[in-house]
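Incident log, support desk, overnight shift.

02:14 A customer reports that sequence design results differ from what the structure should imply. Their input is reproduced verbatim below. On-call engineer (initials T.W.) acknowledged and began investigating.
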């Protein structure tokens, strides 16, 4: 309901906060500015903003369900696949953090820019929807780590939020994660258009041959002869290995025989060993017991496979170009092999920028929707439990949900180090 006194009081609040104010908290610096408040006030009056505020009321459970599905799927794969566990150990636990400089696969340049934009989009969602329902936003501004901008903040009046209906609480708390998911999809569409503009270039000069070992399975033929991760298999049974298909063909044509295998390890040392191949190869299973990729991937095939992911398995596009470069056309390894009809040789800058916007917005959105204490999802589900239970049981129920969900998330991170 429209409340004139409330609007007048809020206008006075804006006047009082017309000056920029700096606040220090430990290593963080909060720069309070009036510009965000005025922006929220202006946008919230728009019909589209009001429509958006009404439409997002019931969408938090959808994002939460997606987040839990992805985490549970990750746990199932970790339990059932030793290769997944080994890959997780290789990239390390810090790869789960969305902090450039700590996460070794999150580039500083693209990472910081995308993270700041993502947090601003998230907080703006809360602020705009709060004002659409005439809930006071106490302050907003820029958050710095020392002198480095890492995002933004929006402080909503908790007393007013507590007094509102569950529908309004849901709309305000859902707005942050939902903004991130929408912007993630927009970024993914932009990435698709950049990738769709690519075409392979003709390469001049000698082409490197062989296949690179990504992981070695325990108790496999590869492990028995000392073949290690990051080695390059160059020769088997006296034949030069050009690609994965060629290696498979050579191995299958020599089943039951003893053959020589030559590889170069990651230090550059060449090694020659003799292996005994089994008489029969199991269908759809490797013979050596390794996961591999081509040293010189076919750019046409890489581009075609990557384009197909947009339609067949978009979640697979969450794989960063810095982790497995041989399958991402705009990675440092593959980018020189392509040109773009729209962007020329600078396409990789745009592709990487859109990718990290998609990656960070998606991850931040689903993580904030989890039913964990201070997260947006945790706060919403806590309010919903409170509305149904007026006793101390609400505290116990919320705490149990937070603990269980935290354990599940922790398992997805640390299980690869427990199971070998």
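02:41 Re-run completed on a clean worker. Output:
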């Amino acid at each position: 309901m429209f409340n004139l006194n409330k609007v007048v009081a809020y206008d006075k609040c804006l006047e009082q906060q017309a000056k920029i104010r700096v606040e220090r908290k430990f290593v963080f610096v909060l720069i309070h500015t009036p510009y965000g408040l005025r922006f929220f006030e202006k946008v919230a009056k728009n019909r589209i903003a009001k429509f958006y505020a009404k439409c997002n009321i019931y969408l938090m459970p959808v994002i939460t369900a997606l987040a839990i599905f992805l985490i549970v799927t990750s746990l199932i794969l970790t339990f059932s696949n030793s290769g997944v566990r080994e890959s997780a150990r290789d990239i390390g636990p810090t790869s789960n953090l969305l902090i450039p400089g700590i996460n070794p696969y999150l580039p500083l340049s693209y990472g910081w820019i995308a993270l700041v934009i993502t947090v601003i989009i998230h907080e703006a969602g809360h602020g705009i929807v709060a004002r659409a329902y005439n809930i006071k936003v106490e302050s907003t501004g820029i958050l710095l780590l020392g002198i480095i901008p890492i995002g933004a903040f929006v402080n909503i009046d908790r007393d007013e939020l507590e007094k509102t209906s569950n529908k309004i609480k849901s709309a305000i708390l859902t707005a942050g994660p939902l903004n991130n998911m929408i912007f993630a999809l927009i970024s993914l569409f932009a990435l698709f258009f950049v990738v769709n503009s690519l075409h392979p270039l003709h390469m001049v000069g000698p082409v490197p041959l062989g296949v690179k070992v990504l992981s070695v399975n325990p108790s496999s033929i590869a492990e028995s002869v000392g073949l290690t991760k990051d080695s390059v298999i160059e020769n088997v049974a006296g034949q030069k290995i050009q690609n994965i298909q060629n290696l498979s063909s050579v191995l299958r044509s020599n089943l039951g025989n003893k053959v020589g295998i030559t590889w170069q390890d990651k230090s550059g040392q060449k090694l020659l060993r003799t292996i005994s191949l089994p008489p029969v190869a199991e269908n759809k299973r490797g013979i050596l017991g390794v996961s591999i990729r081509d040293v010189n991937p076919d750019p046409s095939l890489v581009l075609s496979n990557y384009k197909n992911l947009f339609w067949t398995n978009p979640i697979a596009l969450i794989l960063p170009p810095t982790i497995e470069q041989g399958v991402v056309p705009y990675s440092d390894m593959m980018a020189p092999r392509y040109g773009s009809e729209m962007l020329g040789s600078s396409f990789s800058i745009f592709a990487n920028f859109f990718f990290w916007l998609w990656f960070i917005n998606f991850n931040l959105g689903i993580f904030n929707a989890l039913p964990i204490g201070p997260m947006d999802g945790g706060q919403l589900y806590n309010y919903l439990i409170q509305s149904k239970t007026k006793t101390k049981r609400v505290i116990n129920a919320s705490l149990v949900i937070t603990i269980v969900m935290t354990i599940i998330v922790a398992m997805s991170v640390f299980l690869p180090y427990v199971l070998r």
